[in-house]
Model the fold of this input.
Amino acid sequence: MLPALTVLAFSAARPTHAQTSEARTSEARTSEVWVLSRGASTEIDLATAAVGSTLRGAGHTVPDPDAMRERFEAEISAAPPEVSDTQIDEWVARSQSAVRNLSRGEYDAARADLAESQRLIERAFAELNREVGRARQVLDSCLYFVRSLFETREFETANQAVLQCRRLVPGVEASRFQHPPEILDMLARIDQRLSRGPRGTLVVESTPSGCAVRFNGLASGTTPFVLDGIAPGTWRVQVECGEDERGRVHRVEVAPGENRVQIDTAFDHAFATSPAGLRMRAAASVGHAHTLARRLGVRVVLVDSSGEGMRATVVDGRGGQQVVELGEEVDTRRVVQALGAELPPLDDERPATRGASTRTAGHGPPSLVGGAVVGALGLGAFATSLALHFMRADRGDRYAIAQPLDVDFLTRKAAWENLALPTHLLAFAGGALTSAALALALPPRDGVPIWAWVSGAVGLGLAISAGALVATYDPCTNDADSSAACVSRGQATQRTSLLGAAALPLLTVPLTYLFGRGRTPTLAPEMAAGEGYFYISLRGTL
Done:
């Protein structure tokens, strides 16, 4: 728990805006190119991925969406955290449970409750602190952990933890009747120590001015705003010009003396970060892309839709700008020419056309090698399953002619039955692995080729045949009385599995081209069969 609290208060955040922008620009950074979607649509995202792939092939350093989002949030700003009512209710319940466990001396149980509640605090304290009452709950929850340390005589760790609690929620009093006097005294001593220590001044200015300012989520005033006597460390600053809006979170490193930060709210609104990555809003000005390029020392390529297809706008931090029309066929090599790099070989192109699910990333030599390895494993598993099927058929014949009174009747029965599960598992493992290999190794194409539809038709035929076999199963009511019928039924069940497993990779071929690797995850067929049942389904997202 303590390391988590320490990360909250002292995480090494880079200063925002004026403290980091131009200082980080260097020759090494100017070779980095950020390719961003301008607007939100599948076509734009596909074209963006295609441009990035082509630029990588030409030797440019193009970060992936996760890397761009992480750096943007670390050096510029992060999306405001979101907390649901259900999460808040669970957090409150955990805190109350921790108090009960502390009062009973059950410290391990109390710390388990506090660990759960702290996970929410670590992620969303800037949101939880927006209301004074809830900010007090954050402080109280933190002090419950301090109490668990204090009462188990971990005094040094407790003193460190109470300091982190105060930095997490500055200027808010703890609930007087929720904590023993010893914990409140520790908090008071920390407040006195901080008041005598080095102090800094934080000046927050914004464009436009007159906007609300929040520090660690706590409302503090309006811009331009000066906060004197602030403890050095990492602070979360939000500027909000509308009553209902949530400002992006800027991490500011405050040092002794005067610290200034300038926040452009229009720039904040120009970009959106999410688990999917970083993108620029469609209505945002290209000037904000120039600002981004200057502050991070990179070149930026914005991909959006024009009236005649896709286009790319190449900008840098010095105000340079070049618009490249990519057309409906998305000729990504034009972007390479605009950046002045050597064109990649034609075989390495990954064009994305409007309305087509072209695979633009993750396909190349590593995917081919991976597909070959996975395919070899799949074919091996399927071949082994087929061999076991014939071996089981032989053992089934021996079992079928045996009589219940024979000495080796149970031995023959067990020898036949023991091969059932491995045969089924290896069959579907082989089908699944071969399907995955095809998804990795199939060459990129625009649309679905004819031969892929033929493959899908054959796969569908096999799947229908597998389902039809279920209706032909012989009844098997008693092994001793109808061993031959049970053997026939068992072998038919295995043939159903083998046909279904063979259908999986054949169905995968058209589905891979139909839904493509540009959307993740793609649909994949699933099939299963057993005694008296059979099904085929598609799992994934569109």
About this structure: Confidence is low (pLDDT under 50) at residues 1-30, 346-366, 517-524, 528-535.
